Amino acid sequence: MGRGDGLERYERQMRVEGWRQDLVMESSVMIVGVGAIGCEVAKNLALMGVGRLILVDNDVVELSNLSRQMLFTDKDIGRPKAEAAAIRLREMNSHVEVEAHYRDVRELDPTLFEETQVFCSCLDNWPVRRWLNSMAVEMDKPLVDAAMEGLVANLQVVIPGRTACLECHGEELVPREVQLAECTLRRRKPADLVEDLKAQGIEVPLSVAETLFNAGVKTIFDLKYSQADLLEKLERDVREAVREIQERLKPRMPALQSIASTIGGIAATEVLKIIHGGSIGKPMRGLLVYDGSSGRFTRVRLDRMPDCFVCGDHVREEGVSMSIDPGEDVASLKKKIAETLGLPDPEILYKKWRLRDEQTLRELGVQDGDIIYVETSRRYTPLPIRLILGGKS
Ligand SMILES: [Zn+2]
Prior knowledge:
single chain, alpha/beta, Rossmann fold, Structural Genomics Hypothetical 15.5 Kd Protein In mrcA-pckA Intergenic Region, Chain A, 3 domains
């Protein structure tokens, strides 16, 4: 059946002033996180006839999801969420092309990002939200980010170069405990990880902690949010142990379907406004906070930060420069990067090397004007920094 056959289906929405069903049917939207909010957004966009929906989620349906993740039923328990949702959405509107990706979004084929017109982040954790924000900004594509906890939900629309991104006010908006967890910098020993896990009631042999350390997993935070492909590199028994730990550490925040449907409805409307390019209204600015307990909507003004390390003009156009003393070692350079750019976990790449903390820049033969690349979980691509030798910054 051709798409044109379905126009009668959309007859009522086409009466909305400025509505362009052709634009809706040509659009492609990626929904990252098919939980409570993701289900709502996906349902809305499928019903309204968005041409291509790309669903990304690396989790499976559990019984405790069924009180709010409205695309799933009992028979979906154990199935990947993205796949179960895709089946349901195709039943709701067979004119929509729905794709399911049972993966960590950070491991998707980048061509999928290029083919996406609008990203919708419906994730329950900051590390991946931040990564997605950076990816959208670097690809110069709009992002609608929606999240909730208990009776409170919030929403932010990021139009790269025009509105604030999630990182512009990350220091204030990201919960302190997430910031601190990320900042547990890397001068740690495997025994520290064993201790931290013990404090959470999880016993792990030192040998497992050592293996994890070698794979770059040094904190509970790393364990919670490490990419799935890291697991694939581990020995089978360590991998099983990590899966079990991750299962026990899974964030289980209070969540309500009624709040999810409220914020999911608003998120879908914002996606549609972006697709329409202004004819049904301009995308929302600032941060919208809905507090269900008081029934209050609050709009927090958010200005774009010109020096934001993700969306700032100089980062996007000229890159970042940094003055360094060649006698400095890599550890102190990392510290400087962490402090001046607010990146808590920088890893430095220079030429073909990943630099070790104790090396000095002089030993490495770093020349004035050389570029180093900073890898961090906060960014999609490494951040290039031009080094200016000799100066004190
Ligand atoms: Zn920004």
